[in-house]
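Re-running the complex after MR caught last week's input typo. The corrected sequence lines follow. Everything else is unchanged.
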Amino acid sequence: MYLDMSGNTQSKRVEKSSPDRSLVPPCQAVCPLHMDIREYVDLLAQGRTMEALHVIRNGNPFPAICAYVCTHPCEEACRRGEVDKPIAIRALKRFAVEFGGDRMMQVEARTEHCEKVAIIGSGPAGLACAYYLRKLGYPVTVFEAHSELGGMLRIGIPQYRLPREVLDTEVQRLTQMGVEIRTNTRVVSLELLFDIGYKAIFVTIGAHQSLRMGIEGEESPGVIDGATFLREVNLGLKPSLGERVGVVGGGNVAIDAARTAVRLGARSVNILYRRSRDEMPADSVEIEQAEEEGIEILFLVTPTRVKRENGQLNVTCIKMELGEPDASGRRQPVPIRDSAFSKEFDALITAIGQSPQTPEDFRLRIGRGSIIQVDPITLTTNRTGVFAGGDAVTGPATVTQALATGRLAASRIDDYLQHRYPLASSAERESPIGHLLPETIETIRKIGRLEPPTLAAEARAEDFAPVELAYDWESATNEARRCLRCGIGAEILFQDKCATCLTCIRVCPYHVPYVDASGTIQIPSDQCQACGICVAECPAKAIVLRKPHDRRHITEELDHILRSAAESKSKPVIVGFCCQYGLFGTGTLARFWRGAKAGVWIVPVLCIAKVEANHILRAFEAGAEGVFIAGCGEQCSRENTAYWVRQRVAKVRSTLEQIGLERERVQAFVLGDSSDDLVNELDRFTDQIGALYLTSVILEEVKS
Amino acid sequence: MPNSLFKEKLCSDKFLVTTEIGPPKGADTSEMVHHIDLLKDMVDAINVTDNQSSVMRYPSLGGCLFIKERGGEPIFQMTCRDRNRLALEADLLLAYSRGIANVLCLTGDCVDVGDHKEAKPVFDLDSIQLLEMIKTLESGIDMGGNDLKGAPKFCMGASVHPEADFIEPQLIKFDKKVTAGAQFFQTQGIFDLGSLKRFMQYASQFNVKILAGIIVMASAGMARYMNNNVPGIIVPQAIMDELATAEKGKGLLKGVEIAARFIKTIKEENLCHGVHIMAVGNEGIVPDILEAAEMVGVST
Amino acid sequence: MIVAQEKPLAEIRRMIDRYERVLILGCGTCMTVCGAGGEREVSYLHEVLRVAQARGGNGTHTVSEYTVKRQCDPEFLELLVDRVGDVDAVLSLGCGIGVQAIAERFPEIPVLPGVNTSFMGMAKEQGVWDERCAACGDCRLEETAGICPITRCTKGILNGPCAGTKNGKCEANKDMDCAWVLIYQRLERQGQLEKMRRYYPPRNFRTIARPKRIVSKANIDAGGDDA
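Corrected-run output:
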């Protein structure tokens, strides 16, 4: 009988080490919805698509929509971009949505309150607010002036960017939740809504009024404003544009209009933009795809006069050059004297911006640019019980920002109706994680970004089918494992235990830990690549991984497996620690599962670098006859992991010998080591262990 | 107390010949005595090795006493591996009192290469400190600064390694040994006369006598073994090949031939002052070597 | 750094065989640095004993674990006062100093050494430690260009090298450099070969007469300074 008591002080230490010490990564900090991107990318790297989708749905009410049209500020902030290219986060989200079965997701909601809330406008802000208020248990009605829900999602963004079915699915889910929808209903008075019993109103009417260029001839037939043009197309009309189309503007609306014109049959489409390519606000991928589709962009050009003659538009343009920066920081375009030229078009689409158009009868205070003024913390307007958000408040912004506003509005309205004090939001907007040092970047393996596949340029112009396709399984897994795992690396939690032995400095493949001026070892969270080698090698056990889940993961999985193995009758028991990441985890490991004979129990680990000698011995203690560690080898996204596993295997082997067990009972299988298939190697190992086990059983019987 | 006969010969221009006897591993000294009788009149002096290669044997001092008894001239080989300064001083007093007047001062091989690997290595002194210590004793005081009742007098010798692959530090040591009072040097095995010549060019500035060490190999296998395992011995490939040409069982004759050839050349070309023949385990073959080198009757 | 190596498992098991309740005590300083007796090794040894037990060892043991910052200072040992009352033996993974310190502080309890303390040395690279200092008490590194002839020369001679050096390596261990060749090279580089040409008299072994003691405090009588 073997009893065990661990030191008291040390178990107190375990409690202290439980809180989550992970840091908010830049992707999450900059995301308007504060999504746990790091977590779902990690799950995708393990092939756990449904769980990834779950994490996504936790933070985002309409992941499918974002998967198509989010402007991905996370990718701009992604620190992988400092090494090579950022992680393709939006494309990964799209993969999770499509392969994780988002369409099947049901959302439950029950009515818990009696206060009714009215939402005017069914753009992303309105829909998100409806979703969250409904989940909180409020009866919600969405009023939409048009015949279909979605706001800009429906009438602004073309279908080749956001397919109709995706939007419809999301809208249907709201209905399933019990949100009341009133389309074709234009609200003219807020008092009326209060009179019929609504206790709070969220005004989110968007910004649909196109800005005028303010040039002569703007009223001429053939000159269309971009918002109206896109709305008509999205509602099913096919405006005739003729062969030569000009689009004025540089934002996503201009690009959308131009690409829509191509799909409607225009032979030549030009975009006229008054600044240069670098200043163009449209998404760079959109610009690239537009040019692939044959759209020519004329930079530093602006129209000054439009004249309709002989059935076409004669547009006088002038060349511009960039002068001093304006208030927004961008350099002001200045016309170059005597550089006027003219171009002929059959149609001219203006897309230089939109502004909201709030009915005067709402009696809301309006600010510059026609936006509704609100208190930034509570989102309240000048009228009690009336909240506002979305493009109507910010001017044209992104879908994700609108979703975030809708979510915030829901919680503010809830505060208001439940008479709670509205505290300022505590979500960190700044990540505490700084930039990667050049020395660290040098040591990180460069793996190029896998772009999601797109339709060939020629195929695109034929219809409005989505241009961007989803990843396949392999590409998604490979792309996801490029993530640097910012903020969940190692830290020296117990500085008093640290003997400054310098082991962590010597074993880190990325040269991250260093000795500071006072002689203390520091592991800067900015540079740590979360491989886990120093955690397993520290002789004083002073270093831990920041996330509690990571700390306990292997021990918990191992204990669980050992209990199951003990209950099963299959003998001998063989335990295998197998990496779950990447193609190894999703491919080879799957074959391991299938190929493994009875009695082989697999403990999934997140990188074998974290498997310690103690874990291996623990398996033997609990009755395993053989233990193996299987990992990705050359596919591993971290360095030196196989080397350290082999060191630990060597140590355990020499220990086993001293106990009277054979060295062969521990084995490391690393992809790329031998040309033989890993499953064959596992078979041989299983047979070997079987033979050893049989021998020992016979010896036991002979003894007794 | 008698003077050293060997020392007298050192002072002359005679070509010197010495050889060494390896004592038995045990108390049966008959074979050793037999070899002493065989060689005592053929050479100018006979060394007795001191636990050579850190293998425990009948002591050098005992062998020297036998040589003295039988009328030969002994050279007492003394290493610093097994005894501290008190024991070394005491043994020197004993040696001198029994007429043993020649000492070869060596540091000694390390314990690891021998057959008592777990023994404590002493190395209280090194070879140079031993030479200095003898000088001190000769002046009438011991290392503790105490007056001696009867001071010994010795003819001191040391070893040198002209074929060392890194020669400068060995030359520094050689200098120190000369300064410390060494009057004769027996070298490690010589296989390359070129390096002997180069060494002699340097050494001839000193008033010391150099005896070239000649090792007699019994076979190519023995040569290889010594090359790999015996400190200070480097056998060139050419010699090992030459040994390998011998017929089975005739390896020793080949070794004799090679040794004689070396001795002859050294004498004829006057490369140094003499030779020290090391026929470890084959002391009986020494007369044959001398004969083959036409050196019989050289010793008077 | 004091460098040690774990004792063979068979020896440890033999030592603890007769005791039922054993405390494995680690040391958070030198033994952690050289990887022989820090908290990780304590926990590893504990696991090893459990495996040995589970695979059919004799006897029963109740093992507990603890690690102190240092075993060689009495203040740190005060933390053990409660624990030693509950055990029959302490298996210390500290160096020989630590083992003896614990034995002195807790004379009723048998204290067993779990490591073989080997030398004072430094890391050549991660996982490789070399001896450097013999604590001879008469440091002469000035003479030998910073290379200790006592630890790095097998024979520890002061007028080296001996004739056994081959290829710059020691006759006793072909992997070890001949210290005197290194000393020569470095003195030559520094232009100080005359230091090697000097005669160095025999060592004063009185400096290592055992047990040694160094007293750094002055002896001050009450009411006045010591003359």
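None of the earlier attempt is carried over here. The interface with chain A takes residues 8-10, 28-29, 32-35, 38-41, 43-44, 46-48, 50-55, 60-67, 69, 123, 125-127 of chain C (CB under 8 Å). Residues 92 and 99 of chain C are 6 Å apart (CA to CA).
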